[in-house]
Amino acid sequence: MLNIPTRWCNLTVILLIAAQSSAFSLEKPNYNVDKSDPIQNCWWKSGVFYQIYPRSFMDSNGDGIGDLRGIIERLDYLHDNGIDGFWLSPIFKSPMADFGYDISDYFAIQPEYGTMDDFDALVAAANDRGLAVILDFVPNHTSDEHEWFKKSEMREPGYENFYVWHPGRPHPQDKSARPLPPSNWVSFFRGSAWQWSELRKEYYLHQFSIKQPDLNYRNPAVVEKMKEVMRFWLARGVAGYRIDAVPTLFEVAQDVNGQYPDEPLSGNTNDPEDPGYLVHIFTQDRNETLDMVYQWRAVTDQFQQEHGGRERIIMAETYSPIEIAMRYYGNDTVPGAQIPFNFHLITDLKQNMSAIELQSTIEYWLEHMPKLNSVVPNWVLGNHDQHRVASRFGNDMIDIMNMILLSLPGVSVTYNWIQQPAMLVQKNTSTQHGTLNEPPSSGILQRMLDFPPEIIHGFLSHQTLPK
Ligand SMILES: [Ca+2]
Ligand SMILES: [Ca+2]
């Protein structure tokens, strides 16, 4: 028996009435699906996607850390729930300063998650069940422990300009003092986005943490290297990418004097360390960034043309204003991301929302979508940066929010499907990407064990999960 509060039974009636009286519909319309090619290019257009956070999803060897073999053990769970594909938060080699969003080798698996053989086995087992595997692509920055950064810091030929370096502004009073940062830009993690390197005697840019230096996308060698990364995993059978922190890829180019401009103050806060202190007109959503997404789409399309199989997809992470978010879909002449994430179910709705507010949030995306044949809407109910559905809307809203998600037209994306009550006790840890779910601790694990095993997926070791 589904647990639906009376308040929401009433609201559901309102929604259904609204559906009959406007363009809004709870039925899944046929969004430009090409029936002539039902498998290759349409598979994702009404797809149900599940985000797996590998570190906490399923631990196969009892070391307390989720791993690839653990995911393999739970593929039937995904398949039996009607999932079409899943995207994996980063599984690549990393010092874990930002839980894998600081990659030190794009071509290697983090050892605690498994081996390349385990990865290949995961893809094969997923494909056997018709499940698409989507990888997290983290292009804006590497770890400062990546060999590219070490070489760049040493000015090794070929790597000098792999990152965004600048000598800084001369100190106005003391010419012999260390130069000042090149601009007033602020990191998402607070404070200056520029970090001095004693080794190179220059500043490097980090839009996120000090340990996440920004790659220099104005260097064609960087662009080509990252396309090589994409092709490497496509060749191992992945069905596409979720692309991290897309808006921050490019910053404005230096002016004729080799300087970067300051960003204007937002007026929203007096705290100059707060990223909200500035309006990010020079560091986010540059036209070059949109073009890079289009180039990556060309990489995945070309791969399909050369190797066949289903359309490879791109999911783009952007919390940008809707007019900009829509541009990531592409335009009349060039396609972009099939799924520029629509986070409005997360960002615009609060506990005790009305049905009308929900309807407005849904229509907001639909009304702004470009009128292109290939474009379908998508709906994201949760991710690793956000509190769970139970925490955001209340325990009694879990079922109905999932039903609404699955009733909406187009693509559905969720995180830990059941959005279990135990997540109410989960703490969050501040990181470069806002708040990330805390890694498993014995206290959290114990509280989760209070719940029936069939509703728990995540945070459990192989030994503790009843069969
Ligand atoms: Ca493990
Ligand atoms: Ca950047």
TrEMBL record:
Identification of the protein by name: alpha-glucosidase
Reactions catalysed: Hydrolysis of terminal, non-reducing (1->4)-linked alpha-D-glucose residues with release of alpha-D-glucose
Similarity comment: family membership: Belongs to the glycosyl hydrolase 13 family.
SMART domains: Aamy (SM00642)
Keywords from the UniProt entry: Glycoprotein, Glycosidase, Hydrolase, Signal
GO BP terms in the entry: carbohydrate metabolic process
UniProt-recorded Gene Ontology molecular function terms: alpha-1,4-glucosidase activity
EC assignment: 3.2.1.20
EC main group: hydrolase
Signal peptide range in chain numbering: 1-23
Pfam families hit by this protein: Alpha-amylase (PF00128)
Every Glycosyl hydrolase family 13 catalytic domain range: 51-452
